[in-house]
Amino acid sequence: MKDAGGERGLLSLALAATMMRDIILVTGFVNQSFPQPLDKDEEQRCFERWRKDQDRAAHDMLVEHNLRLVAHVANVLSTSSQR
């Protein structure tokens, strides 16, 4: 049996990573005000709507509320590539 929490986390990371290129261009690593992360229940509901119904609004909500993660990953990758 798959770990639902781990699967959700990996999917959230994958969703965030797909947006990384655009976010890097938009933010330029400048501190921005990002939406707060979704609580676990709301994230799960959005994930299920996106997975079952390909609900674009649910997809966008997941991406938007994971922008902090995207910015963090982009910053880590940028910093490590400069070494």
From TrEMBL:
InterPro entries: RNA_pol_sigma_r2 (IPR013325). This is RNA polymerase sporulation-specific sigma factor. It comes from the Bacteria. It comes from Alicyclobacillus dauci. SUPFAM superfamilies: Sigma2 domain of RNA polymerase sigma factors.
